[in-house]
Design brief:
mainly alpha; two-stranded antiparallel ribbon; 2 strands; 1% strand
Length: 1059
């Protein structure tokens, strides 16, 4: 029977098939409404299929107090018929639904099977039926609701479409019943329709804004005493209905409709303008009572749970991420910051809003997350700027709480459990990155809040540098943002704390450390105790060194910042002050009478002295790491920094000059460093582009230069200091002729002036630490380079170089070996005749313990093998197979010597080039035999060399493919050592990479076996590195086969001239 009601509505709302062409739109519409109403009444009386419709219509009509049979407005008569039919349909569907719920159809229950769908309830409507109902509802709202709204309430019909303007003219406002009663009738009927879920969807999806406008006007519009159209209970019922409607509907839609209902700003009429001009009419501003009501309702929506999200969705849903969305985000942020009047207090409001702002940062959908993060970031930054107290308490403190707990963790309360979970720490860092780095609005409150947890973030960054973690980039960006946005003093203080030069209270609590998480993050847990004191000391020292390396990595990333240079100069100034204080301490210790002191005082004095020494050593370590890790162009990138560096260097040289009485007494390294620094200043002053600003900057060098010119024991330095002081003081008016000579002499020194900072640090390290002669360091080769030896043009005879190659001094021996290598490469005649002696010398030095020596010997043997492969390679291969053959060889170190020989053979293989097919055959046999060596390291070395050699053999590899494939396949499947399996898989990858397009020709017979071996590694090998190598090899094979199956198409155009 539902179809009969829908058919009746269709008769009432269908357009006329014939219309008078001469009639106006208004007349044609009125005629159509009257004709359809008359046709419906006739069909209800005559058509038997409409008996149930007629019966329910009459029942509704009798119970409807609002029905007016003598109205003179044809549009209201039409609306009344629509309302009667809709109410009759609701009564019918309600009864059918109750009957269906009490007793479902027996036929349906009897025929029901497991795979059949359940029967549909009677309130389900088809698409065509929903379309008919939507048309009827549109007529009801357009003719019975919108025309009776007060000016400024809702969107007028005339602004919606041209048809709406026609409808507005058709309505007769003076006819009975009054306009307010009509509005109340239509609204109440629509509310009754909305009680049925099927019809509620149709009503609210299209006409929610009109319903809210009608209820707002009926319930809240002020009424004059003489024009009371509604009773008090009716107004109260409308208020209750409006409140229930707003709570029932999806909140973002409600907020959007409330914003539209609130209207635009007040329109100010301009002189000479007309509101009825032919231009487009603007939207009317809402009356004051409606604006206040909408503001109150919006505030209530905002202060509900998840209210912030509803407001953001209402404003931003459907955005594309363009410029308009940025403006919307700023507008929403300003709305969230403004405390509404309905709130009991600002504290309560922000305590409710700030957690919801943080929740906006945690959405996963890309577009939604991007827009929500914009709003959250802008809101947080605006809150920090306007409400710093509430922001710190309710926004920043909860956001940084996981990092704060890392500082305040207690080992007794944790009981060995995880203190901060991985997900919690990851979310905290992501939120911090979004607010601080993406927001990029440095303020004192934000910088202060981040500074409290900066050591924890740095500790976490150092942890992520040890392994693979997705938190590394987040920590690095946060640290770089703070160092780049903070003031210079705060940034330098933070660097001192991070480097360990100054204590901090906000680092990770003692007894706790970060451990890897299951999802690539980190978590804070109790540190496992270390029973061995040596291991504990090693862990502490390695941790400190690792922190310095990470700090240098951060400073290296600050490419366009002066902070690294300022930090470097600050440390040098502190070092200079300590030098002065050190002399005073020595005097105090000499004057102190230990015999008159108590044991406690002596112990305190020793502890304070040890503490000061520890601080100085830490400072020296930081300076040394800075010089080794950072480029001089980054440490001294401005003229002011160069001048400050020179001032620090000169002040450092002035310390203790009054105690040096004899000439040439003192540290020669200090004198050399000082002369180089002064030569740098002389070079700068010798350039013609020195400006007055540069002279003003260099004026701070005058006092130390004056002291050096009078007190320094070296006469050359005294003269140079006097000349520099005269040039700077006279602003270049006085310039001696030999001013640039010291600079030129310094530039001829192997360590040029650009490495002045390195020399300064070396001078500091050597002057403050005792020199160890028992175990010389490879870095001491500088002494050899400073001698008269010149490897590019050796002036000594070969015999002298051979003798120096046996010198016990490591730098001298290594330098001689490198000189002999160059002589071999240059085909020196004397060296060619004595190549056997040179070979024996290289073989002896190959067994040396110092890496500087045996690496030079490896380089020399590779050069000999490249120059004389026929005679040298055989000897090298024998030593590699059977160990060193020299009488003086240490048999216990035979394995190390064989591995070094393997390095020689690998370098020789790389140098063979096109001769590899001719010279490489013996090497392949030796390397294949070495894969069966008892030692796993030798097997891996042979496979590595084999891979390097096979890349260059090309077609010469053909006869060896079967043997090579069998060897590699057997090692992959049977070898126990993971390193050997990795090397075997890597050989296949190198083989495919070297052969490239020749793979199918050379390895055609064994390619399938190699492919199956690689697939076996991926499926079965437990070693992740071997699996990675196999994947890379398969990628190489995939590229080869793609080029083989789908060769590149070359399009060529040929032009032929026909005679």
């Amino acid at each position: 029977m539902t179809s009969a009601f829908i058919l009746a509505l269709n008769v009432l709302t269908k357009p006329l098939s014939e219309a008078n062409a001469q009639a106006s739109q208004q007349g044609a519409l009125q005629a159509a409404l009257e004709a359809n109403r008359a046709l419906l009444l006739e069909r209800l009386q005559s058509d038997s299929s409409f008996e149930e419709v007629q019966r329910l219509r009459e029942e509704v009509k009798l119970s409807a107090e609002w029905f007016c049979s003598d109205t003179e407005d044809p549009t209201w008569s039409f609306v009344q018929e629509c309302l009667l039919l809709l109410l009759a349909l609701v009564h019918h569907m309600t009864m059918e639904l109750e009957r269906f719920q009490l007793a479902p159809p027996q036929s349906a229950a009897r025929l029901q099977t497991a795979e059949m769908a359940p029967p549909l309830p009677p309130d389900v409507l088809s698409v065509s039926q929903q379309k008919t109902l939507s048309t009827a509802l549109q007529f009801v709202v357009s003719l019975g609701l919108c025309p009776f709204l007060a000016p400024g309430v809702g969107v007028p019909l005339g602004h919606r479409s041209a048809f709406g303007a026609v409808v507005e003219k058709l309505i007769c406002q003076e006819a009975l019943p009054p306009a307010r009663r009509r509005l109340l009738t239509t609204t109440n009927v629509l509310l009754q329709l909305a009680e049925l879920s099927t019809l509620a969807t149709l009503v609210f999806t299209r006409h929610l804004g009109d319903m809210m406008a009608a209820l707002s006007q009926l319930g809240h519009e002020p009424q004059k005493e003489g024009e009371r159209w509604l009773r008090g209970d009716e107004c109260q019922a409308c208020q209750v209905a409006l409140k229930g409607l707003l709570e029932k509907v999806y909140q973002p839609i409600v907020i959007k409709e409330l914003l539209i209902l609130q209207g635009g700003p007040k329109q100010v009429a301009r002189l000479g303008s007309s509101s009825t001009s032919g231009g487009r009419a603007g939207l009317r501003s809402a009356p004051g009572w409606l604006r206040r009501l909408c503001g109150q309702l919006l505030s209530e929506r905002l202060m509900q749970p998840h209210g912030v999200q509803a407001v953001v969705r209402a404003v931003l849903e459907g955005g594309t991420g363009g410029e308009s969305d940025w403006r919307k985000c700023d507008a929403v942020a300003r709305i969230l910051v403004a405390c509404p009047q309905q709130s009991t207090s600002a504290d309560a409001y922000f305590r409710l809003i700030c957690p919801q702002v943080l929740d906006l940062l945690h959405f996963k959908d890309n577009l939604t997350a991007q827009q929500f993060q914009r709003v959250a970031t802008r809101a947080a930054l605006t809150l920090v700027h306007e409400r710093p107290t509430f922001t710190q308490q309710y926004l920043l403190a909860p956001l940084l709480a996981p990092l704060q707990r890392c500082c305040t963790a207690c080992s007794e309360s944790s009981n060995g459990q995880v203190v901060v979970e991985e997900a919690e720490l990851t979310r905290c860092l992501e939120d911090t990155y979004k607010i601080w780095v993406v927001g990029n609005s440095p303020s004192p409150a934000l910088l202060a809040a981040l500074e409290e947890v900066l050591p924890v973030i740095f500790t976490l960054f150092c942890f992520t540098k040890q392994n693979v973690s997705h938190l590394r980039d987040l920590c690095q960006e946060i640290l770089l943002w703070f160092l780049g946005k903070s003031e210079a003093s705060a940034a330098l203080l933070a660097l001192r704390q991070l480097s360990g030069l100054q204590a901090t209270k906000s680092d990770v609590a003692e007894g706790f450390c970060f451990t890897p998480g299951s999802d690539g993050g980190a978590r804070l847990s109790c540190r496992d105790g270390c029973s061995d004191e040596d291991d504990e000391l090693y862990e502490k020292l390695s941790g400190e060194h690792r922190r310095l390396e990470c700090l240098m990595h951060l400073l290296a990333e600050l490419k366009d910042s002066d902070l690294p240079g300022d930090f470097f100069l600050d440390l040098l100034k502190e070092l200079t002050s300590w030098a002065t204080a050190g002399e005073e301490e020595v005097k105090d210790e000499e004057e102190a009478d230990v015999s008159s002191m108590t044991l406690l005082e002596v112990e305190q004095q020793m502890l304070s002295h040890a503490e000061r020494q520890g601080q100085r050593l830490a400072l020296l370590q930081v300076l040394a790491v800075m010089v080794e890790s950072l480029q001089h162009s980054q440490l001294l990138r401005k003229t002011t920094q160069v001048v400050d560096f020179m001032a620090t260097l000169l002040e450092r040289a002035c310390v203790g000059l009054d105690t040096v009485l004899e000439p040439h007494v003192g540290n020669p390294v200090e004198s050399q460093t000082l002369s180089m620094g002064m030569g740098l200043v002389a070079t700068i002053l010798s350039t013609p582009q020195v400006s007055s600003e540069d002279y003003a900057l260099m004026s701070k060098l005058l006092p130390p230069l004056d002291s050096l010119s009078q007190l320094h024991p070296d006469g050359v330095i005294q003269e140079l200091a006097a000349n520099l002081r005269a040039v700077i003081a006279t602003r270049g008016a006085y310039r001696p002729e030999n001013l640039a000579a010291p600079a030129a002499s310094c530039s001829r020194n192997p360590k040029t002036s650009t490495n002045g900072s390195t020399m300064q640090i070396n001078e500091v390290k050597e002057s403050r630490t005792p020199v160890r002669t028992s175990s010389p360091h490879p870095a001491s080769s500088a002494g050899a380079k400073n001698s008269n030896h010149n490897p590019e043009s050796p002036t000594k005879p070969l015999s002298d170089w051979l003798l120096e190659a046996c010198d016990p001094n490591v730098p001298t021996r290594a330098f001689a070996l490198r000189t002999l290598t160059q002589m071999v490469q240059l085909k020196d005649p004397e060296t060619v005749q004595a190549k056997e002696k040179v070979l024996m010398l290289f073989l002896e030095n190959l067994e040396h313990e110092d890496s500087f020596v045996y690496l030079s010997a490896i380089q020399g043997l590779a050069a000999l093998a490249d120059s004389y492969p026929d005679r040298i390679l055989d000897r090298l291969l024998r030593d590699f197979q059977h160990g060193p053959s020299l009488p003086s060889s240490n048999k216990e170190r035979s394995l190390e010597t064989r591995l070094k020989m393997g390095e020689v053979l690998m370098r020789a293989s790389r140098a063979m080039g096109e001769l590899a097919p001719h010279l490489g055959q013996p090497l392949v046999g030796v390397f294949l035999q070495g894969t069966r060596d008892p030692d796993a390291v030798v097997r891996a070395s042979c496979l590595s060399n084999l891979g390097e050699l096979c890349q260059k053999l090309d077609y010469a590899l053909g006869p060896l493919t079967q043997e090579l494939s069998s060897c590699l396949t057997a090692l992959i499947k049977t070898e126990r050592e993971a390193e050997v399996r990795r090397a075997a898989v890597h050989v296949i990858a190198l083989l495919l990479r070297g052969l490239s397009d020749k793979t199918t020709e050379v390895l055609g017979d064994v390619l399938l076996g190699l492919y199956r071996a690689l697939k076996w590694v991926i499926r079965s090998d437990p070693d992740e590195v071997a699996v990675t190598h196999a994947q890379l090899a398969l990628e190489e094979l995939d590229d080869v086969m793609r080029r083989f199956l789908f060769p590149e198409q070359k399009l060529e155009k040929k032009i032929r001239v026909v005679s």
